[in-house]
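Q: Here's a chain of 211 amino acids. Please give me its 3D structure as C-alpha cells.
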Amino acid sequence: MPWYTGKEKVREYLEKVNKNGKVIEYTLFQPGLSLDYLATPYQTAKHVAPLDSVIDYQNRRAIVVDGHEDAIMTLTTAADLAAIVARAVDHEGEWPKIGGIRGNRLTFSRIIEIGRPFTIERVKLEDLEAGHLKTSWTLDKRHKAVSEDQVASFATMVSIGILLSSVKGAWDASDGLSQLFPDYKFAEIEDFLTKVWDGEAIIAMLCYVTI
C-alpha cells in the first residue's frame, strides 16, 4: 500500500535509532481498518470522513480475492482507537513495540454474512499482482487529499492494496496494546452495523461519535 510509505520510513528510522540498544521507547499503533468506513455514506466519527471500501454495505456488494475468502481483517472504530491511544499515553508501564489494537478480528466471508445478502465479485490474485482490477464497480468517494484527475487511479490502487495486503495477512493486527487494558470493551461489529444499517440514516445520526 504505497500511501503508507511515509509510515514505513518512520518505522525504519526508529529501528535504526534503537539498533544498538533502546534509545527511544515507542509503539506502532496498528488498529486494522476503520470500522467506521463500513457505515459509508454516514459519518459515525467526527474526524473520519466517509470513504468507500471493497466491502460496500450501502449497496450490499463486496470484492474478494478468489480462494482467499477467509483472509483475516481487523476492524476497529475510531472511537475505540482514540480511547486506547489516550490510555497508552497515560500508561506508566512499558509499551509493546507492536501496538496492536484489535477491535474485531474476523474473515472476509464472515463480514459479508452480517445482515442482508451481498453480491460478491471475485478477482484473481494474479490480476491484482499485475495491477489489474477486473470488477464492474470501484470506489466512488474521493479523499480530500486526492485530486480530481487522480480519483480513478487512486481508487484502483486502494482496492488492489487492501485486497493484496489482506491475502498477505497485513490486516490481521495483534492485540499487544489491547491486552494492557483488559477492562476496555470494544464496539462489536454486529452491534455497530445494526445501529447504522437497521435504521440507516436516522440511527447513524443517533450513534454519531464525537472524538
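Q: Can you summarize the key feature?
A: The mean pLDDT is 90.
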